[in-house]
C-alpha cells in the first residue's frame, strides 16, 4: 500500500514537472543568420550649417531677452504712473510699489551693464536706491513725493525710446 502511494505521488510530480516544461529546452534559434549590429552611417558635420544654426539660436535669444526687458519697462511705467494717479490710495501699498520699482531697476541695471551702457546703469541704480524697500529715501505722503513718483517713470520711458542709449535719428543723419 505504501509503495503504491509513493508511485502515484511520483507519477503526479513527474507529470507536474513535465507540464511545467522543466524537462524541455528553453533556447530558440533565429531563422536569420547572425549579424553584428552596426550603427547607421552618419554624415560629417557641415560647419556652415552648424554656424547658421548657432546664429539662429543666438538671434532668438536676443529677441526673447529684448521682449522680457520691454515688458519690465512697460510694467514699471504702468506701476509708477498708476501710483501717481491714485496717490491717496497708495500708502497701504507703498512697500509693494517700492519693491516692484527696485526689482525693475535692478533688472535694467544688469541689462545696461551687460550692454556696457554705464550711464543708464547708474541712472537705474539711483532709482533702486531711492525706492529701496528696506531703507526708504522718502515716504509716500506729500505732493512733491507724488511728482517724484511720476517723474520716476521718465528713465523707463527714455530707455524705451532710446534702447541703445542714443537717439537713432541723429545717428542716421551722420
Could you please describe the fold and organization of this structure?
The protein is an all-alpha fold. It has one domain. The protein is 67% helix and 0% strand. The chain is built from 7 helices and no strands. It has helices at 2-20, 47-85, 94-114, 118-130, 143-151, 153-161, 168-173. Helix 2 packs antiparallel against helix 5 (143-151). The radius of gyration is 38 Å and the shape is elongated.
A few lines on this structure:
The chain is mainly α and 174 residues long. It contains seven helices and no strands.
Average pLDDT, rounded to a whole number, is 78
Percent in helix: 55-70%
N-C termini distance: 121 Å
Order of helices and strands: HHHHHHH
Strand content: under 5%
Total domain count: 1
Number of strands: 0
Number of helices: 7
Q: Main β-sheet: number of strands, strand sense, barrel status?
A: none
The parts where pLDDT drops under 50 for at least 5 residues are 168-174
Overall 3D form: elongated
Summarize the topology:
Blueprint: H1 2-20, H2 47-85, H3 94-114, H4 118-130, H5 143-151, H6 153-161, H7 168-173
Helix pairs in contact: 2-3, 2-5, 2-6, 3-4
Comma- or semicolon-separated keywords:
174 residues, 67% helix, disordered C terminus
Amino acid at each position: 500500500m505504501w509503495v503504491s502511494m509513493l508511485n502515484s505521488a511520483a507519477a503526479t510530480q513527474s507529470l507536474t514537472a513535465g507540464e511545467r516544461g522543466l524537462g524541455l529546452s528553453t533556447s530558440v534559434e533565429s531563422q536569420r543568420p547572425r549579424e553584428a549590429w552596426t550603427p547607421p552611417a552618419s554624415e560629417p558635420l557641415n560647419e556652415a550649417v552648424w554656424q547658421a544654426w548657432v546664429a539662429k539660436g543666438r538671434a532668438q535669444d536676443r529677441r526673447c531677452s529684448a521682449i522680457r526687458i520691454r515688458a519690465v519697462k512697460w510694467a514699471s511705467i504702468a506701476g509708477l504712473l498708476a501710483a501717481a494717479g491714485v496717490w491717496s490710495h497708495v500708502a497701504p501699498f507703498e512697500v509693494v510699489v517700492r519693491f516692484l520699482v527696485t526689482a525693475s531697476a535692478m533688472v535694467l541695471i544688469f541689462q545696461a551693464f551687460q550692454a556696457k551702457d554705464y550711464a543708464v546703469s547708474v541712472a537705474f541704480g539711483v532709482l533702486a536706491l531711492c525706492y529701496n524697500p528696506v531703507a526708504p529715501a522718502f515716504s509716500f505722503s506729500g505732493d512733491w513725493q507724488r511728482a517724484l513718483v511720476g517723474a520716476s517713470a521718465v528713465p523707463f520711458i527714455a530707455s524705451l525710446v532710446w534702447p541703445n542709449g542714443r537717439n537713432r535719428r541723429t545717428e542716421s543723419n551722420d
